[in-house]
Amino acid sequence: MAQPTRREAMPNVFISYSHVSPDQDLASQLAGSLEANGVTVFVDTKIRIGEDWVEQIDRQLRSSQYFIVLLSAASIQSDMVRREIALAYKLRKAKQLTVLPVRMDVTQELPYDIGAYLDSIQYVIWNSGESFDPICRRILHAIVDPEKAVTQLAAEAPAATPVSNAPRAAGTTQHPNVNAFDRPELERVKQQLAVYIGPVARVIVDRAAKKAANWRELYETLAVEVPAGEERNKFLSHRPR
To answer: Cα–Cα distance between 35 and 80 in angstroms, integer?
Structure first.
């Protein structure tokens, strides 16, 4: 029996987006670009009338190997997009899915729940007025030619630098103690906070550590994430003197 060709073995891709422009325009172009190269793509417009759309989305996402999420001002407020991101994160942790985030004019920090899932993943950026073509090529390379995608990413590193590390606007200053906390100690703080709020603690601690001046300020910032009362007092008791 003949071995399947590279094109025949192409993965399934799920595109998550909000039904507004330019999100749906990029989703449509991405789908067309990938399908033209033999990739099977699911977008929710393919759900047929009469089908259970929640069940269909869940099934399609679980059967995909790549999850492309278009992060815009609209989509990060969408309950459905948030649910898709949460499920994609679980599948990624199980090594069943690769997540490819695209930021669409989103320069601010993501909401905590979304950031907890996506902040550690390299993303690409699209800015208003730009062509969709470079994004489509980057995504296509990441799926059908990962080695080329890595080379291209290295060449374009400044454009893909996470927002938290980007140069600040004129007139602003970065805290002189940013990233000055001892890393092993920060790991212990993450473990302490995770007892109360779960794995999202890792992202929250990293963010707070970039802004806090000292351990006291760091713990006081993090304490608001812990239920008030005995639990919060117990968390604060770990604060270095």
So the answer is: 24
237, 145 Cβ separation under 8 angstroms:
no
User: Residue 103's closest CA among 83, 80, 143, 74?
Assistant: 74
pTM score of the predicted model: 0.60
For residues 141 and 148, is the Cβ–Cβ distance under 8 A? yes
Whole-angstrom Cα distance, residue 29 to residue 24? 9
**Residue-wise DSSP of 91-160:** HHHTTS-EEEEEEES--SPPPHHHHHHHTTS--EEE-TTS-SHHHHHHHHHHHH-HHHHHHHHHHTGGGG
SS3 annotation, 171-202: CCCCCCCCCCCCHHHHHHHHHHHHHHHHHHHH
Q: Which two tokens mark 8?
A: 């025949």
Most confident of 46-55, 101-110, 199-208: 101-110
Q: What is the pLDDT of residues 173-188, one digit of tens each?
A: 334 444 568 788 888 8
12-165 CATH: 3.40.50.10140
Residue with tokens 């449509």: 28
Phi, psi of 125 (to 5 degrees): -120, 135
Q: What's 49's DSSP letter?
A: T
Query: Which of 8-17, 21-30, 152-161, 173-182 comes out lowest in average pLDDT?
Result: 152-161
Which pLDDT does position 3 carry in this prediction?
A: 43
For the chain, give every domain's residue range: 12-165, 183-236
Q: Are 62 and 32 in contact (CB under 8 A)?
A: no
The whole-angstrom separation of Cα 34 and Cα 7 is 11
